[in-house]
Amino acid sequence: MDASIVVEPNPPGLASGLDAAKSSDGAGRAGSHDEEEPLYRRTVLYGIVGALGVARDALPEDDCMEAVRRNVDRGLRAPVTPSDVEEWERTAWQYAREVGAVPPATVLPELLVDLDEAHARLTEADDKLRNRLARVCAELSALTAIALIASDSPGPARRFWRTAVRAADQTTDHALQARIRGRRAVFALYDDLPVSTALSMAEDAVTVSDGHATAGAASGYAARAQGFAQLGQHNEARRALGDLEATFKRLGAATVDDRRSQWGWSQQRLLHVASFVYAHAGDASRASQAQESALALYPRCSIKDAHKSNSIEQCAWSWPAIQSKARATPPGRLPACPPHCDTTP
Predict the structure, then answer these.
(1) Model-level pTM?
(2) What would the pLDDT profile of 294-336 be if each residue is shown by its tens digit?
(3) Which of these, 203, 226, 335, lies nearest to 273 by C-alpha position?
(4) Closest-CA residue to 186 (of 149, 159, 155)
(5) What is residue 99's three-state secondary structure?
(6) What are the helix (H) ranges across 297-331?
(7) Which of 153, 150, 151, 168 minimizes the C-alpha distance to 204?
């Protein structure tokens, strides 16, 4: 807070107002409920404003502040407008960059609050805006699933994946439908599920793409390649890798250059899939070559980056750390990488 701005911790009359509010219920207040309710709300808001002038530990609970904000929002009785939808689209895009880079314990509560509010907007929107808001809900649901996987909560993650797919199918955006399905298939490989389940999900992503080069198709082929590799069906794995490489060449520049969000499909992802397939086939030379090529594309980490993400772990996974760990990994396996690393196709 700016030091030049002084907020009184106890505005005049606050104590007596709080006492009055605490000592009476809705039926016992003098005057009508309609007259007393605004005064009661102002009393609560004065308390919040006063708390903002104190230490962060003295702030009201997040749930309390959110309840006040939502009450104000509902009181406006404003219709959902295109500018509202644009705001939600920006919010979903920001979360796509935060999930995987911000610790799940930090991002999940915020994400769930916003998903709940986006759902409220969806139910209020007219038919012209529902398609775009359904897209927002699909993306936020999928990002919630990814964050839950990172927090080792596979059961809730599966339920949010179902909702994400269902929401995506309410839109006319086939690329979105494929993208959600593709990411779900990839993450299924890291879940306690049969590989055949991930392969079935991968097939769905490829089918929905309908021959178009989309991030969803790329993820579908990636999941297929890795799934077959895990099953020891190396010819099928190499065939899927070839399909992935052909799809990657046709992806748009915006998708390939996006290395920070969950929706991009960078060259690092392609190389990690190749390394995975070759390693499981016992081709140590080609696996190492793909691995080295992928590692060479990572930017060097800086203290500033670690400070911005409030995570010392990010700096610990700087280039020398990633490189040395990868070189020490036996040819049959891939090195574990923190969530923010661009290794999950």
Answers:
(1) 0.71
(2) 988 887 653 344 434 433 333 333 334 334 444 444 444 444 3
(3) 226
(4) 149
(5) strand
(6) 303-309, 312-316, 319-328
(7) 168
